[in-house]
Amino acid sequence: MLKALVKLTLPALLVASGGLQANEDGSTLETVKEKGFLSCGVNTGLPGFASPDDKGKWSGMDVDVCRGVAAAVLGNADKVKYIPLTAKERFTALQSGEIDVLSRNTTWTLTRDASLGLNFAGVAYYDGQGFMVSKDLGVTSAKQLDGAAVCIQSGTTTELNLADYFRTNGMKYQPVVFDTSDGTAKGFDSGRCDVLTSDQSQLYALRLRLSKPDKAVVLPEVISKEPLGPLVRQGDDQWFNIVKWSLSAMINAEELKVTSANIDKMKSSTNPSIKRLLGIEGPKGKGMGLNDDWSYQVIKQVGNYGEIFENNVGEGSPLKIERGLNALWSDGGILYAPPFR
Amino acid sequence: MLLRLWRDPAWRAVFFQVLLIALVFLGGAWIVNNTLTNLESRGISTGFDFLSQTAGFGINQTLIEYDESFSFMHTFVVGLLNTLLVSSLGVLFATVLGFLMGVARLSSNWLLAKIAAVYIEIFRNIPLLLQIFFWYFAVLGVLPSPRQSISLFDSVFLNVRGVFFPAPVLDSGGMVAFWAFLAAVVIVGVIVLLNRRQRKNTGRPLPWIKTISLAVLLGLPTLSFWLTNGSLHWDFPALKGFNFRGGVGLLPELVALWFALTIYTAAFIAEVVRSGIESVSKGQKEAAAALGLRPGRVMNLVVIPQAMRVIIPPLTNQYLNLIKNSSLATAIGYPDLVNVFAGTTLNQTGQAIEVIAMTMAVYLTISLTVSLLMNMYNRWVALVER
Amino acid sequence: MQREMIEARKPPVLSVGFIGWCREKLFATPTNSLVTVAILYGLFSLIPSFIQWAFVDATWAGASSSECSSEGACWAFISSRLDQFIYGFYPQELSWRVDLFFIQLAAVLAWLMIPVLPGKKYSLAYGLIVMPVTSWIILAGGLLGLEPVDTHDWGGLMVTLVLAMYGMLASLPIGVLLALGRRSEMPVVKTFCTVYIELWRGVPLITVLFMASVMLPLFVPEEIVFDKLVRAMIGIVMFQSAYMAEVVRGGLQAIPKGQQEASDSLGMGYWQSMCLVVLPQAIRLVIPGIVNTFIALFKDTSLVLVIGLFDLLSIVQAGLNDPAWLGTSTEGYLFVGFVFWIFCFGMSRYSQSLENNRQEH
User: Fold this and answer.
1) Domain match, A99 and A209 both
2) Which residues of A touch C225 (CB under 8 A)?
3) Could you tell me if residue C333 is inside a domain?
4) Do B242 and A148 touch (CB under 8 A)?
5) Is the pLDDT of residue C15 over 60?
6) Mean pLDDT throughout C156-162?
7) Cβ <8 Å between C225 and A85
8) Is residue C120 part of a domain?
9) C82 to chain A: which residues are within 8 Å by CB?
């Protein structure tokens, strides 16, 4: 009769094991190389940062960071599996090993470094929290928002900054909480709230989702610092370095005016900095467990930081965000990557 | 020897039980060990210390005093109270609607019975979450903005931000009247009890019972109100700045959840009520009718009391389902326990295990308490049977 | 003298036929008449305008809500995205595999549900043991030269059916074991099963899903990674098996003790008497209850929306956020409601007919 028992439970077991993937013990790099693709956690849909088109092809700033890491590690920027995550799930997904990199407009904070067991591998976008209101209200400053209903996404630093800002300015507000950024846009559009607050970059993206985008304005105040960047698990320094330097390669490339279009010509450049950037001279990829042409692949397949910015959120995109803080340090911004030496 | 022991059912039972204990223990140990290793290797903090930390986020409906500077423990209480609020509203209205629909389903009026049947079949076969979305996004979400509110006599306002009613405000004299009213309720309760005893002993009710009760109920508060020279005024909601202030406001999230829970659960309660009424044998109704009771009294005095015994246990289940289903609040952002505590607090602290365990414990406690109370009631009802 | 029976007079015209029926069923008393008139008034004012909106003035095709008439329903939202609602993000050129899965499921269900078809035993065995395996192979691929399709690309109606099917197939056997355990004479087994059942029945599914999606990864060694869909399935099965156990227990209680004693006296062991004598009777008795549990499970699959899986409801909800389709939420929800309703109403009718059949025998 035990046979009957086995017969009954077997299908359930089979089902479960079908979804099981065994991770080989060892470094993230080995795992990624072995499975042949990079698992990258991204936003469920935020134009300019990570959003799928109707064919399921992903694009955006955050997506390009993933592509850069894939190009460095696997030599092919398309070998990425995108895993859309809500704000709630993102850290668990990385902690549990479901994803290798979390590139999901996530703010670098002390708590997240200290008590979540995660590491920020750099800043991919300097952002700050802002407000968007309907033009009809005639509001010109965030200081006039006393008593307003505010749409926010739950589980974000935004929620905490908002509370702080209203408290310090002695104003009251009504939070209206949504699970996704799409939800906040929908709530704002239907008039459920007067104000939509989020990172400024997101506000521009969300404005495109409104029925009448030109009826809304983004207020000038920026109430917080929001450095957004990719995260990895603690305890794997090699992987941490790979993600950090993939990002740095893109920024350095812009500084040295190396683009995806001119990179092959630049290979013959006599500038020693460019030679080091492209791995022709100086430090080799082996130290990080990568091929020597890793940085070449990143820039060739994904582009330098400037290109990524322009294509996804800048002039070449519907968002039309200015470089602002995200310009190179040499151009009046604060973008500054450690040198390839 | 071993084989002989194996063939002895008593020994085999012991063996299986020891095996199960060992398996459960080992499985538990394995999970705990994994969890601890995982938590440590990932540097996630543990323990309940986070409960006393400052929460730092706002909640848009709080039944107790709360602001951003309160602790995470307060968010737990705020969420719990909001869960209880929407659950009790839901239970109350679902019971009323469910009983009406259940009785209508058996009505002699063909049209009414069919309408009730259509209602039941439609609403219990559509997922609750979908119904919540429908009310929230498709019905309440398309209401006008506060400035174009739909208003009723300039005192009740309906807009996309919710429904706003005038609220009564009592001064000190008014408070006395309020207490007088409570006292009147107690007095009437005593009168009713006395009446019941009298009727049991002598078969006759006390004279003038209804008039006296009504007089006490209305007279006492009015008298004290007049004597203390109290005044009552109404706090009308008014558009000030961005939103309505004053009065009592119901969030659209609360209204959507309440409607959906009521309508969904009432469809199930109607079926429970119908089968309860059908369980009362036809002879009972005929006998009552032969005694000359009018149909309404047959229902109230003969059918319903007997049907209740059949209705109560499944009705309890429906109540419990409603309370558990109120956790779907999180999908539309009504600040219930799951949304506030297992949502925002979990996110801000990252301590999934502690938070989820506390949330589950709350629902488990509510479930077990309600079924305990209902079991007691059931026993009490059963005793009446001769 | 009257020798023949006086022929019965015809009943008055007003108490037979349509008029009589109306008088009896609609206008029996003044209150009744009032109710009837009120309902008729309500119906006449609602139904024509609904038909006007949903059919006459409706727009059936188009690329955005701006192409829809403002008077009527915008069914173009559904028609333009129907593929996505059924297949999710499943690669278009492979969607025949999903169709195959649908056909297999429909065939097995039809075989089981239509009473005249022979070989119920085989269809049951196929449905319980073979179908889960073949379905997974068909959908996930990776075997037999089928291109692997990641579960992240699954979505829409297909995910709803996958969750419902696996939830059902796994919770039934687990539920039976738990029910047997709860009626066991071994105190430890009994306590364990009772605690398990009451624990899951006492908490909302949403917290179970949260637990499965957030905590499950912490419970297993780092090397094991479940994907999101499987985690949701585990949560649903844990939850649903407790409900299933209670249904089966009801059936077990209804079987007279004599059955068990008779099989004991024939020298059957516990499992023999259970599997050959008691369970077959008990389960046959509670099939309507099992179908009802399944309806609840089917509706509950929509809750996976909160952990970010794209089932039918969730994918329609996501489509409603598309700026091109603003203002079509009523149409979207009506569509999803209709699909769920068809499935659930069909199943509840089936369970009722089973119950009626039994009462006739």
Assistant:
1) no
2) 20-21, 23, 96-98
3) yes
4) yes
5) yes
6) 92
7) no
8) no
9) none
Domain chopping of chain B, boundaries: 2-41, 72-166+236-384
Residues in chain C: 361
Q: What is the mean pLDDT of residues B182-187?
A: 86
> Is residue A340, in this structure, part of any structural domain at all?
no
Q: How many domains does chain A have?
A: 2
CATH of the domain at C196: 1.10.3720.10
Q: Of C155-169, C179-193, C206-220, which one has max mean pLDDT?
A: C155-169
Please report where in the chains the tokens 């006449």 appear, as a residue.
C44
Distance of alpha carbon C148 from alpha carbon A21, whole angstroms? 14
Best of B12, B14, B86, B133 to substitute, by most chain C Cβ atoms within 10 angstroms, is: B133
Minimal Cβ distance to A117: which of B43, B141, B160? B43
Answer yes or no: do A177 and A207 share one domain.
Answer: yes
Average the pLDDT over C6-15 and give the result.
Answer: 78
Give the model's pLDDT for residue A250: 94
Residue C270 has pLDDT above 90, yes or no: no
Helices (H), C114-215: 120-125, 131-140, 157-182, 187-201, 205-210
- Count of CB atoms within 10 A of residue C276's CB? 14
For residue B275, pLDDT over 60 is answered with yes
Whether A144 maps to a domain, the answer reads yes
Cβ neighbours around A337 below 10 Å, total:
21
Q: Which chains touch A (3 or more CB pairs under 8 A)?
A: B, C
Residue A203's CATH number: 3.40.190.10
ipTM of the complex: 0.87
Q: pLDDT at position B135, please?
A: 92
Across chain C, which distance is largest between two alpha carbons, in Å?
106
Range of the domain at C319: 76-90+149-360
Minimal Cα distance from A90: which residue of B? B347
Closest C-alpha among A42, A39, A43 to residue A97 = A39
Which uninterrupted H or E stretch holds A216? strand A216-218
Question: What's this model's pTM, rounded to 2 decimal places?
Answer: 0.83
> Would the CB atoms of A175 and B59 count as touching at under 8 Å?
yes
Assigned domain for A338 exists: no
**pLDDT class of C361 with cuts at 50, 70, 90:** low
Looking at residue C257, its amino acid is K
Residues A139, A96 within the same domain: no
For chains A and C, what is the number of CB pairs under 8 angstroms? Answer: 112
**Predicted local distance difference test score (pLDDT) of residue A54:** 67
User: What sections of B247-351 are H helices per DSSP?
Assistant: 252-279, 282-290, 295-297, 304-325, 337-339, 346-349
Residue C4 forms part of a structural domain = no
- Superfamily of domain B72-166+236-384, CATH level 4: MetI-like (1.10.3720.10)
> Between the CA of residue A28 and those of A98, A118, A120, C95, what are the distances in Å?
11, 14, 16, 34
Please list every residue in chain C whose beta carbon sits closer than 8 Å to the beta carbon of residue B347.
Answer: none
Of A14, A56, A179, the CB nearest to C132: A14
Tokens linked to C339 = 């699909």
Please report the pLDDT score of residue B89 as a whole number.
94
* pLDDT per residue as tens digits for the range A87-143: 777 887 888 788 899 999 898 988 788 877 889 999 999 999 999 998 888 888 888
User: Which of residues A170, A193, A224 is at a domain's end?
Assistant: A224
Tokens of B87: 């659950």
| Contact state of B348 with A174 under an 8 Å Cβ cutoff | no
Residue-number span of the structural domain to which A217 is assigned: 129-224
Are residues A261 and A182 located together in one domain of the fold? no
pLDDT at B348 over 90: no
Last residue of a domain, one of A185, A204, A224: A224
Strand pairing class (B162-165; B248-250) = antiparallel
Count up the domains in chain C and report the number: 1
Please say whether the beta carbons of C227 and A21 come within 8 A.
Answer: yes
> Could you tell me which chains touch chain B, where touching means 3 or more CB pairs under 8 A?
A, C
Q: Which of the four pLDDT bands, split at 50, 70 and 90, describes residue A16?
A: very low
Q: Per-residue pLDDT for A17 more than 70? A: no
Residue of A nearest to B67 (CA): A163
